Amino acid sequence: MNSTTNILKPLLLSATIATLLAGCGESTTSKEGDNFGGSDPVVTPTPPTTGFNETNLLSNLTDNVITPAYQAFDALTQEQELAVINYCENPDPQTLQAAQDSWRNAMAKWQQIEVMQIGPLTENSSTLRNNIYSWPVVSSCGVDQDVMYFEQGTINSAPYDITKRTASRRGLDALEYLLFNSITEHSCTSAKEVLNPWASKTDSERKISRCNFAVEVAKDLDNSADLLLQKWSGSNGYATTLKQAGQTNNSFATAHEGVNAISDALFYVDKMSKDRKLATPLGLFSNSCGGVGSVCSNDVESPYSDNSIANLVNNLIGFKALFNGEGSDSENTLGFDDYLVDVNDSATSTKILSDVQAAIDELQGYSDTLAQSINQDAAVAEETHTKVKKVTDQLKVDFINSLALKLPQTAAGDND
């Protein structure tokens, strides 16, 4: 098996979030309307007739890949909170850089976790996932408004409480805007009463207001990461449910259903990495610049930090770790690749791992940002899309068929 440095797994945005965030006000954008998260009724697939131990697979992926990733993210959000506080208390280029670096570190781990979403991250229309990272539903105008709501301490005559705010005003995407956006004008294009005092603020005062809210967002992120671990760990946590799939009173009737739930997470690289992060700004799908055929670098992920390529790399690193079971314990690497070998389909295992690495190598070879590449020479990003598509094509056909897994609804009938 190939080694990899990280972990985690994906699931999806519910269409419900578009409704939840409709109240965010101006500049709320979402290009993802499909139900992206495991809400379909469980259909019990028939596992392949081999002696492969699916319970051992579930245990390794849970204990060796997913759990360490959640733990690492929790630690990184704590470091991020301290870095943001330090910057706001001692603002200078060095402390700003440290705060931005802490964001990139937390985002790197989160982008791996995006490909490992299961259980707590998909429950209740993916509420916890969206509170941590709501993209592609984002609202810079909403964040600007909450800067002022937080400063005045009240909203609609009630004390300000970030946990009651919509997801696009919280999380890693809100913090990116606050830490990386150097333009001090607010981003709303229509009048917002709460922003009336903004015009009279100096640039220095505006930065202080945003920084104060950035601290609140960072604290909220740390709390969300703690909540994820709480829901995942312990005797009643989801990790135990997953490892005991098939036992009496378990929500998974069979171990194969548990394996299928993890398999579903892998398809993040299809719907989101390939389609939303690459195909949409390339104009292969409709985007904010127009219909199919309209190249639109405005639609890249993480535009303020230019972190789009790093995000894609980490999606693929997370995919690879979940696929081949290589995580914190180098002595235990049971993964889907071993399952494929057991059912006499080592060719699919080899091809998927080879194609994933080829896509990672391609992305790590970029000399420009993704937005610059799309604007200057879209053919480069199109080639990256082709490489990721090779992975997802195998995932949708040979992988699913060989392991008798159910194709997620988000990928069914999708041949792009």
What is the compact description of this entry?
The chain is mainly alpha-helical and 416 residues long. The chain is built from 15 helices and four strands.
What does it look like?
The chain is an all-alpha fold and 416 residues long. The protein has one domain (16-29, 52-402): Up-down Bundle (A middle domain of Talin 1), CATH 1.20.1420. It has 15 helices and four strands. It has helices at 16-20, 54-89, 93-113, 123-132, 140-152, 171-180, 203-232, 238-243, 255-266, 268-282, 308-324, 336-342, 346-364, 370-376, 378-402; strands spanning 28-29, 138-139, 154-155, 158-159. It has a two-stranded antiparallel ribbon with strand order 1-2. Strands 3-4 form a two-stranded antiparallel ribbon. β3 and β4 (158-159) form a beta hairpin. α11 (308-324) runs antiparallel to α13 and α13 packs antiparallel against α15 (378-402). The relative contact order is 0.17.
